[in-house]
């Protein structure tokens, strides 16, 4: 149905107000004089003709009033009621339709606003639920190393560790637990910054292979403790990208840390970087047990842990892979997880090349 504008309807109403009294006047003149020659009779039919014209004018006003109420006033009243219901939190409101184009545009605007508010409310509810979950999960993860740290410190204070070897062991455990706490707090801070705050990327031109090598160097001590060899293969000429080197190094460190933690002693980690058209691709393969099938669909969820990572000795909060994936996506790339056919887990990703 074609919609009318208010000015068009106003003009049609004016035409009706002007035309209908004349129609009544002419019909009454025809009935009383049996003639359409209006100037022929100058006597008593004038009173009847004036009454007929006035009746036509009243009928025109009545018709226009009914149409105005039906097309303008009733939709506006229903729209006002719908707005009050929306303000009260009732989103299942049917906004009224109107053949007047301006009212239809206002209705469409309200509908877009309501849909936007619904999406915003759902997003807010999801964020609130996630916030509560993060707080509960991180509090639980912080409690474990804190209890262990307090227990060993109490042992040192009470003199339970009497020999130098025992004291050294207690101090070593305390340092390990404090390092776990530091990693948990740093992961939580990074996740919060990337999830809830606007993180601006510096966007400097860097060599991706340099970032990978720095991450490998930072994880070398942990790998040496487990006698794990880390082998890196880089293409000649490097891989120049435009990225925030600090965030990207954090992402690669998380991936390599995950590989070192789940690779058994005397294992091997292979890192490969290569150019693929307008992309810089990489893979990190370890010689560990790999991911369980149910883990592959949830491995990048915040605070998710597979069965193998539930041991608190690993010291993770389940945020490392989530943070890494979001850093890669912020840079216009992607990160994925899979299992190698010959065994072990594979973390692969790509970033756009800087062609400027």
Give a short account of the largest sheet. Answer: 5 strands, mixed
| Count of extended strands | 7
Percent strand equals 5-15%
Strand pairing plus helix content: what structural class? Answer: alpha+beta
Write out the strand line-up for the largest beta sheet, numbering strands in chain order. Answer: 2-4-5-7-6
Give the CATH level 1 class of the largest domain.
Alpha Beta
Characterise the protein shown here.
There is one protein chain. By secondary structure, the chain is an alpha+beta fold. The protein has 3 domains: about 5-100; about 130-195, Orthogonal Bundle (Helix Hairpins), CATH 1.10.287.130; about 205-350, Histidine kinase-like ATPase, C-terminal domain (Heat Shock Protein 90), CATH 3.30.565. Helix content is about 60%, strand content about 10%. It has 8 helices and 7 strands; from the N terminus they run ααααβαββαββααββ. The protein has a 5-stranded mixed beta sheet, with helices on one face. Helix 1 (about 5-35) packs antiparallel against helix 2, helix 3 (about 100-160) runs antiparallel to helix 4 (about 165-195) and helix 4 (about 165-195) runs parallel beside helix 8.
Keywords, separated by commas or semicolons:
single chain; 356 residues; alpha+beta; Helix Hairpins; Heat Shock Protein 90; 3 domains; five-stranded mixed sheet; two-stranded antiparallel sheet; 8 helices; 12% strand; elongated
């Amino acid at each position: 149905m074609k919609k009318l504008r208010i000015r068009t309807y106003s003009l049609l109403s004016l035409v009706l107000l002007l035309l209908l009294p004349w129609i009544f006047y002419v019909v009454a003149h025809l009935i009383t004089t049996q003639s359409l020659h209006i100037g022929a009779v100058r006597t008593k039919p004038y009173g009847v003709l004036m009454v007929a014209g006035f009746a036509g004018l009243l009928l025109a006003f009545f018709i226009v009033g009914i149409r105005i109420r039906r097309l303008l006033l009733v939709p506006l009243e229903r729209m006002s009621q719908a707005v009050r219901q929306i303000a009260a939190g009732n989103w299942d409101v049917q906004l009224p339709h109107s053949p007047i184009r301006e009212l239809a545009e206002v209705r469409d605007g309200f509908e877009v606003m309501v849909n936007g508010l619904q999406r915003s409310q759902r997003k807010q509810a999801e964020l609130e639920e996630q916030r509560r979950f993060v707080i509960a999960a991180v509090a639980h993860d912080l409690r474990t190393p804190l209890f262990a740290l307090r227990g060993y410190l109490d042992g040192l204070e009470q003199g339970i560790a009497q020999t130098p070897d025992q004291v050294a062991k207690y101090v070593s455990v305390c340092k390990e637990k404090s390092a776990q706490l530091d990693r948990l707090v740093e992961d939580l801070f990074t996740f919060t910054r990337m999830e809830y705050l606007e993180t601006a990327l510096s966007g400097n031109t860097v060599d991706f292979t340099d970032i990978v090598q720095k991450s490998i160097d930072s994880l070398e001590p942990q790998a040496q403790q487990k006698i794990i060899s880390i082998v890196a293969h880089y293409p000649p000429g490097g891989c120049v990208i435009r990225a925030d080197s600090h965030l990207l190094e954090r992402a690669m460190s998380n991936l390599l840390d995950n590989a070192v933690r789940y690779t058994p002693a005397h294992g091997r980690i292979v890192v490969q970087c290569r150019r693929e058209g307008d992309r810089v691709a990489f893979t990190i393969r370890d010689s560990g047990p790999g991911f369980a099938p149910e883990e592959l669909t949830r491995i990048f969820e915040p605070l998710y842990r597979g069965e193998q990572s539930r041991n608190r000795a690993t010291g993770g909060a389940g945020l490392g892979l989530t943070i890494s994936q979001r850093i890669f996506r912020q840079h216009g790339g992607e990160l994925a997880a899979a299992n190698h056919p010959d065994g072990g887990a594979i973390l692969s990703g790509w970033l756009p090349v800087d062609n400027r």
